[in-house]
Amino acid sequence: MQDFIQNIASQFNLSETQAKGATGGLLSLIKDHVDSATFTKLSQALPMITTLISTFQEQKTTTTSSTLGSLASFAGAMMGGKAKVLSQAFDLLQSFNLSAEQGKHFAQIFGTYLKDSAGNELFSELTDQFPEVKQLL
């Protein structure tokens, strides 16, 4: 997972702490939408998950979202369901100074990494409980 963090930090011109925070934010979103048994399996497949989520939790109190991100969150909340979750994901990525296009690309890289690292069976279990993850690919 450290290689993934270093790769995205370099690719998106983020500090390592920002890359950890953005990744932790997406993982936190997943944690909120799957049962604890599935998340435990994911934690075993992807070392550092708890550290990344902690980094995100620390950073989210000091990071402010852009107006555009806030509007996206509002629109997502009004639409509900999948749109709301995707809006939350992109809003949190924008809070780490990623443009909408960069956020989309970041999410795709994260989704692919998640699928490859978790394996087909666990990824299927994850997407059965939280189908919005498929939208990241």
Helix count equals: 7
Number of folding domains? 1
- Largest sheet, described in full? none
Approximate shape = globular
Helix content: over 70%
Overall mean confidence score, pLDDT: 83
Poorly predicted sequence stretches spanning 5 or more consecutive residues = 63-80
The separation of the N and C termini measures 18 Å
Strand segment count = 0
List the helices and strands and how they pair.
Layout: H1 2-11, H2 16-31, H3 36-45, H4 49-60, H5 67-79, H6 81-94, H7 100-129
Structure report:
With 137 residues, this protein is mainly alpha-helical. The protein has one domain (15-136). Helix content is 77%, strand content 0%. The protein has seven helices and no strands. The chain has helices at residues 2-11, 16-31, 36-45, 49-60, 67-79, 81-94, 100-129. Helix 2 packs across helix 4. The chain starts with a helix and ends in an 8-residue tail after the last helix.
Features:
single chain, about 140 residues, 7 helices, about 75% helix, about 0% strand
Summarize the structure.
The protein is built from 7 helices and no strands. Helix 2 runs antiparallel to helix 6.
